[in-house]
Specification:
By secondary structure, the protein is α+β, with helices and mostly antiparallel strands. Among the domains are: 206-250 and 340-373, no CATH class; 257-335, no CATH class. The protein is 31% helix and 25% strand. The chain has 12 helices and 22 strands. The protein has helices at residues 3-15, 133-144, 150-166, 194-202, 231-234, 264-275, 282-290, 305-312, 345-353, 358-365, 379-398, 409-422, and strands at residues 21-26, 35-41, 44-48, 51-57, 62-67, 73-77, 80-85, 87-92, 98-103, 109-112, 114-121, 124-132, 178-179, 206-209, 220-221, 257-262, 299-300, 303-304, 319-323, 330-335, 343-344, 370-373. Strands 4-3-8-11-12-1-13 form a 7-stranded mixed sheet. A 6-stranded antiparallel sheet has the order 7-6-5-2-9-10. The chain has a 3-stranded antiparallel sheet with strand order 16-20-19. Helix 3 runs antiparallel to helix 9 (345-353) and helix 3 (150-166) crosses helix 10. The longest helix is centred in the last third of the chain and has 20 residues, at 379-398. The radius of gyration is 25 Å and the shape is globular. The chain starts with a helix and ends in a 20-residue tail after the last helix.
């Protein structure tokens, strides 16, 4: 992705970030013994705790941080050691700043916003991204779903925003809002795709609420296999908006069907030893080898299917059992991928492809729920930026691979619009031609 386009995405998201900033622990599922930070775009200031170490770090500079103890980290810049501090802090000096993170032994990622690095223990770093909420959200959407149409990303942005706003304190005891893994929501990189930005922008101010106007839980999964699950069949609570629904839109997608072969003895012994079933009883034996689901069930002979799924590493609980007449092995013929509660992502992709509206998709998967629009979000500004992003996407289609410059007119325009919003002025396109003092200097 060209730097000019990356900068555009930064400007656009920052302009309409009406929510607060959030803190996200990066590489939360990895042990990070050292990290090397370089600068893809913009200027950063480096602090060791409250002490300013470097006021201007940019392209060609590298910061190295390592744990020095359980409470401190060493900070080096281009090989020069500054010493040991409790926390290394990299603060962006402008909206358009991108960090490139290279942890030892882990694939490189890039992020926007600020970075705080401290020691998790003597051999592991805690790396936290302090970033605008909507910028984080766009990164989540890119990490969580695939597709091409902007309404796919709009739907994902709405459910991810709703989840995040309900769970701001999920990791409060750990000193941050969210982790970057599926324990919260995947956040594996900054968003670099304008079509995802477009869908996320269109969703600005939208959350999902129940009939009383309260934000709902918004679980989602990859593919329902043709029918979603009731919440109480997977978890404890029976929620009125998480009801099982028929979902033919999830048929014939990437994760629609699966098969797993298990030795018969292993299958039967599992139920005998783990769940104390009498597998020598003819009725029990027969049920375990001929179990069928034409519609989703919660249990097999009283055993929770969620437990079976976990213990055998199955893609879903929506499966039927047959045996191979030659080998005698048990064959699980399954449908879908994930817990099955709430929204099916591949079902969503198919519905968008069929021209079904994004709000109808949400109502399909969350029974009785509706979309609430925050009136404090300026629809006029949102629409203005949607228009600008759409132009850029169309231009890229007409001129694929065209090299762009940071001095492109559209980029200057977006900066001027952002500046006016910061000054709480009304947007007037004619001003673009009248106010030369707002042109961006590079």
């Amino acid at each position: 992705m060209k730097k000019a386009l990356c900068l555009l995405l930064l400007v656009v998201i920052a302009t309409v970030s009406f929510a607060e900033r959030v803190t996200v622990r990066l590489f939360s599922n990895n042990r990070i013994e050292a990290i090397y930070v370089s600068f893809d775009l913009g200027i950063y200031s480096l602090y060791g705790d409250s002490q300013l170490l470097e006021p201007e770090l940019g392209e060609g500079m590298t910061v190295e941080v390592k744990p020095a103890s359980t409470t401190g980290v060493t900070i080096s810049v281009n090989g020069y050691l500054y010493g040991t501090f409790e926390t290394a802090i990299l603060r962006a000096t402008d909206t358009a700043c991108i960090l490139c993170l290279n942890p030892k032994g882990v694939k490189q990622r890039t992020y926007e916003g600020d970075l705080l690095i401290s020691a998790f223990d003597k051999n592991n770093l805690k790396i936290i991204n302090d970033v605008d909420f909507e910028t984080y959200l766009a990164g989540v959407v890119q990490s969580e779903i695939y597709g091409k149409q902007s309404d796919i990303f709009r739907v994902q942005a709405i459910i991810s925003r709703t989840w995040a706003m309900r769970n701001m304190k999920k990791h409060r005891a750990d000193g941050y809002n969210f982790c970057d893994y599926v324990h919260c929501q995947a956040y594996q990189n900054r968003c670099v795709r304008p079509d995802i930005i477009l869908g996320t922008m269109k969703s600005s101010g939208e959350t999902i609420v129940d009939k009383d106007g309260n934000m709902i839980d918004t679980p989602f999964h990859s593919n329902s296999g043709g029918q979603t699950a009731n919440s109480e069949d997977v978890w404890r609570a029976a929620l009125p908006y998480l009801r099982s629904v028929k979902d033919t839109f999830s048929f014939h997608m990437r994760q629609s069907d699966w098969t797993k072969v298990i030795p018969k003895d292993k299958w039967l012994n599992y139920f005998a030893k783990t769940h104390k079933l009498n597998t020598k009883d003819a009725a029990v034996h027969n049920e375990l080898l001929t179990f069928t689901q034409t519609e989703r069930k919660a249990k097999i002979l009283g055993v929770q299917l969620t437990r079976v799924r976990t213990d055998f590493g199955l893609k879903s609980t929506f499966f039927s059992v047959t045996t191979d007449p030659k080998s005698g092995d048990v064959i699980l013929n399954g449908h879908g991928y994930g817990h099955g509660v709430g929204l099916s992502q591949e079902g969503t992709i198919r519905m968008v492809e069929l021209g079904i509206s994004y709000d109808s998709i949400i109502r399909h998967y969350y029974s009785g729920a509706s979309i609430h629009y925050d009136p404090s979000v300026s629809q006029r500004y949102v629409q203005n930026f949607v228009t600008e992003i759409t132009k850029i996407i169309e231009e890229d289609k007409v001129n694929p691979g065209k090299k762009k410059s940071k001095k492109d007119d559209w980029l200057g325009k977006l900066f001027r619009v952002r500046d006016r919003m910061d000054r709480e002025e009304e947007y007037d396109p004619e001003k673009d031609q009248k106010e030369g003092d707002w042109k961006v200097e590079w």
